[in-house]
Design a protein that fits this description.
By secondary structure, the chain is mainly alpha-helical. Helices cover about 65% and strands about 10% of the residues. Strands 1-3-2 form a 3-stranded antiparallel beta sheet. The longest helix has 17 residues, at about 105-120. It is globular, with a radius of gyration of 17 Å. The mean pLDDT is about 90.
Length: about 120
């Protein structure tokens, strides 16, 4: 695709919107590596997330084609989540983003670390 600065910025912003949400990245990291997780496993693995918020974030990721949901017809219901093939391709992208952050100038990197510590303290 032949991007202009405006279309590139707009497209990048649209992609970032898919990942926006307090718990979406945590959910993605839980599902990387072809992990299939039951809803209750995700809930236990992500302390601090409410059931309602986890459902909301998973549904948004599902609508955006990043996560797939499998409902097994049984009682009690068994619901599992996994990344789609396209969703799995986010892993190297996020790894590169982390490498980029690690290479930040000291003052910027320190702010990133402080921001992470503040977020953990709030949780």
């Amino acid at each position: 695709m032949d991007y202009t600065p405006q279309t590139a910025a707009s497209s990048a912003q649209n992609v970032i919107r898919i990942l926006e949400g307090r718990w979406k990245l945590v959910i993605l990291f839980q599902l990387f590596g072809a992990n299939v997780r039951r809803f209750s496993e995700l809930e236990r693995a992500i302390p601090g997330v409410s059931q309602k918020m986890l459902i909301q974030q998973l549904r948004q990721l599902e609508v955006d084609g990043v996560v797939a949901r499998i409902v097994h017809p049984q009682v009690p219901p068994k619901v599992e989540y996994h990344l789609t093939e396209w969703g799995q391709t986010l892993c190297p992208v996020l790894d590169k983003l982390l490498n980029w952050a690690e290479a930040a100038p000291d003052a910027v990197r320190q702010r990133l670390i402080d921001a992470d510590q503040q977020a953990q303290a709030v949780s």
